[in-house]
Design goal:
53 residues; two-stranded antiparallel sheet; 2 helices; alpha+beta; two-stranded antiparallel ribbon
Amino acid sequence: MIDAAQARQTSYCFDYEHQAIHARENGQPALAAGWYSQLEWVEGLRLFAVDVE
């Protein structure tokens, strides 16, 4: 996942109620709550997005 995030040209979004997945089906806008493009694994904890806007 870290390599995929680094290779991606656009940022990933945090959306409301998974609307980015459902927008085509329900016709509602997919508003972003935030964006990130870098991930970091912290041993003993978990995977973190580190550049959240």
